[in-house]
């Protein structure tokens, strides 16, 4: 796969190589790669942008994995809340500032 980044002054081409033992045609292999990155970007974009996961400095023991799981759970809980119509970032702020909203989200009463 080759990518041309034109956001910089000089266009920059990056080549990525993929290795697989699957017996796929070039089209099916390209589709599999695109689907993989679609899932990766959809999930990890929210974790990074909303939860600043890439800036997390937790490195001790298995704490990084535990906090990652907590972030996933928090995003799922806030995404499932249908009462407060807002983005994840606003829902996080509201949960931090409003104990009643936090309690209703944790109790699952915002599901409809």
Automatic annotation (TrEMBL):
<dbReference type="GO" id="GO:0006313">
    <property type="term" value="P:DNA transposition"/>
</dbReference>
<dbReference type="GO" id="GO:0003677">
    <property type="term" value="F:DNA binding"/>
</dbReference>
<protein>
    <submittedName>
        <fullName>ISAs1 family transposase</fullName>
    </submittedName>
</protein>
<dbReference type="GO" id="GO:0004803">
    <property type="term" value="F:transposase activity"/>
</dbReference>
<dbReference type="InterPro" id="IPR051698">
    <property type="entry name" value="Transposase_11-like"/>
</dbReference>
<dbReference type="Pfam" id="PF01609">
    <property type="entry name" value="DDE_Tnp_1"/>
</dbReference>
<dbReference type="InterPro" id="IPR047647">
    <property type="entry name" value="ISAs1_transpos"/>
</dbReference>
<dbReference type="InterPro" id="IPR002559">
    <property type="entry name" value="Transposase_11"/>
</dbReference>
